[in-house]
Amino acid sequence: MLLYEGKLSILCFLSPTPILVLSLFSYLGIDTIFIEIDEIIWWILLSYGIFTNLIIHILLTGYAYQVAVRAVFLGFVFASGLLVAFLLPDSLATFGWYMCVMAFFHYSEFLTIAITNPRTLSIDSYILNHSNEYIIAAITSWAEFFIEVYFFPELKVLRPVSYVGLCLCVGGECMRKLAMLTAQGNFNHVVQSVRRSDHELVTHGVYRFCRHPSYAGWFYWSMGTQMILVNPFCFVAYILVSWKFMNDRITVEELTLLNFFEDKYLEYQDRVGTGLPFIRGYRL
């Protein structure tokens, strides 16, 4: 059964839903009130966001508040992304889809851990503060997007590229979450150096096709984010940096897995690839 923090996060992530419904009615031409919603929707969203944060600040404290405020933030980023995608000019619309993809990824990481491995659940499960390098990479991609929007707006309306990127993000997201759901308590955001008594080698489900589906899913998801934005420079940079990061991480992780499972993992290595291009993992 889903623990309290998981249920709380769902409620908070979905808190902007009334604003989206109101905007949808306006988008479809359904009269709701005697003013143009599109003209004030951003003020409505901002006011509702401030009100929501005030409510959770009054009602919650400690860990529950930390869970809620992050879920609310990600929910409003997701909602804002949908509004950007449907209400702003085409050259900016793709940034809205990017906002949705980013918000859903970080929120779903927390929720999936709450479902599969609740004993390890923490604020860090949102992986919002993943690393300084991750933050720098994100800011760099935003800078490239808006610089190119200003100088080359026609570049950002290459919808086929954005659609392929969105599909890549959805596919990568599904692959990663399937890996987490399959591994259950054996999955952890942090590479483990000490084997727990209940730690098992997972080779079924999506793990039949690749040894590291969660890493592979994230790798393809990260590529997809830059295709959504049609960021040619960051697309290449993300591939190179993500590949280097994954190669190093998998090498370290497989060293520990070989120590944990010995011949059993050796046989698994020989039978199944990593799922990432040109990454073989740690080999004896």
TrEMBL record:
Membrane association type: Multi-pass membrane protein
Keyword Protein biosynthesis applies: no
Domain of life: Eukaryota
Transmembrane segments: 7-28, 40-60, 67-89, 95-114, 134-152, 218-241
A molecular function GO annotation: protein C-terminal S-isoprenylcysteine carboxyl O-methyltransferase activity
Cell location: Endoplasmic reticulum membrane; Membrane
Reactions catalysed, as given in the entry: [protein]-C-terminal S-[(2E,6E)-farnesyl]-L-cysteine + S-adenosyl-L-methionine = [protein]-C-terminal S-[(2E,6E)-farnesyl]-L-cysteine methyl ester + S-adenosyl-L-homocysteine
InterPro entries in the record: ICMT_MeTrfase, PPMT_MeTrfase
Record's keyword annotation contains tRNA processing: no
PROSITE patterns: SAM_ICMT (PS51564)
Keywords for the protein's UniProt record, in alphabetical order: Endoplasmic reticulum, Membrane, Methyltransferase, S-adenosyl-L-methionine, Transferase, Transmembrane, Transmembrane helix
EC numbers on record: 2.1.1.100
One matching Pfam family: ICMT
Family: Belongs to the class VI-like SAM-binding methyltransferase superfamily. Isoprenylcysteine carboxyl methyltransferase family.
Entry protein name: Protein-S-isoprenylcysteine O-methyltransferase
Organism, scientific name: Graphocephala atropunctata
